[in-house]
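Q: What structure does this chain adopt?
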Amino acid sequence: MSFANRPVLQFVGPSPDVIDSLGDKVSARTLAIKAGVPVVPGTEGAVDKFEDVKKFTDEYGFPIIIKAAYGGGGRGMRVVRDQESLEDSFNRATSEAKSAFGNGTVFVERFLDKPKHIEVQLLGDNQGNIVHLYERDCSVQRRHQKVVELGPAKDLPTEVRDSLLADAVKLAKSVNYRNAGTAEFLVDQKNRYYFIEINPRIQVEHTVTEEITGIDLIAAQIQIAAGATLAQLGLTQDRISTRGFAIQCRITTEDPAKQFSPDTGKIEVYRSAGGKYVKPLPLCCRILC
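A:
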């Protein structure tokens, strides 16, 4: 049987090797250090023993944040501000990480109080070309979950923005990234920025970037997977710009009678936003649990 004229199934997204290297936050952190991109001071690798966490706090002090190495979405994450709660927080974080992701490995970083959380939208083709589509600010969060997305970021100095965007592109090039992805950074109160992770996929909040740039990211992904280059799509860096601002607010399902604990149920009524300059998007619900 000949398969010569049959269509080939093409995966839309980065290569499996890139997903493996960036899906693990510890590995992504190592790649960032190698590329010369600043990271928050933290453990050199993943840790699975309390003694290793205590050794870090003995050297760097508090506050710290314990994070699941193989997950996200706020699970397996604990902020610790004193020695008394350190061991219990470590045990809870590793237990939650193992339950959620099948792996209880964590890593530790210094915790930055009230930082800006900035995401850079990236797009790469199969020829090694990478561009950024500017940034989004997702600093408004609850339980480490993003609630409000704003693009582009407000109150970010131009020189900080330019340097942060350049480092995001540099890191993506270092792993030969292709298709859509998001590099995430924290910016402290002195406007120093630190890389934290790359999400090697399209995100819910990509529509904010689409609104301010006028670029259809889903269509671009499919065309890149089919073999198109960024230049053929007209997506060279000098041709990408932003216009205005866009805001996305997420709907969360919580029960106020139970201290706003996560809840489930059926949406019976939905009233879409409207008015001048307001463009309602399709209802997209993400249950935070």
